[in-house]
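Subject: sequence -> structure tokens, single chain

Hey, anyone have a minute? Need the predicted structure for the following. Not urgent.
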Amino acid sequence: MIIAIDGPAASGKGTIARRLAAHFGLPHLDTGLLYRGVGRIMLDRGFPLDNVEIATAIAENLDIADLAGEALRTREAGEAASVVAAHAPVRQALLDLQRAFAAQTGGAVLDGRDIGTVIAPDAPAKLFVTASPEERARRRFRELVGRGELADEEAFYAAVLADIAKRDARDSGRSSAPLIIAPDALVLDTTTLGIEEAFAAALAAVESARR
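Reply:
Had a minute. Here:
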């Protein structure tokens, strides 16, 4: 069973994906970490994020086993990921890696921006998790504050909200695998839902798709 979960930044899709993977005993891949990994390496080595050739070469040699650590969870890494993910050759370089993960015996849970439309279009269970930009900014703000990435609270929240808007526009407007809702995906709006409520709704949708 493949469970494909898509949605914009800070919508709650990662939390839902991890909970579903644990519930069903399936491996989970946060595909955003692939792009964060590429972006982080670009930043650490001083390469410009718009250098498609270098970004593609890094993507071609990326190892899922290396995608760990707090450095990939920072606001800076998230912004870098959004930039390199817009490069079509980078997405192509990571395509087989993601499809191979999805094709594991028994299935898998993947979350990202194009899982239900490009990576696993035949997945029997598809969710598109979303929330209002303001709520997503609040969630990302709390996450970043928890990591110590805080200066002036009011200014910082405004910057996070601006980042969310920028990433939404970039993810939805790119020519290669844009963020769109798969026709057969269930849309789950988590704006007013707690974690348990969101998980329960997602689980019900997956169970329904399995029947």
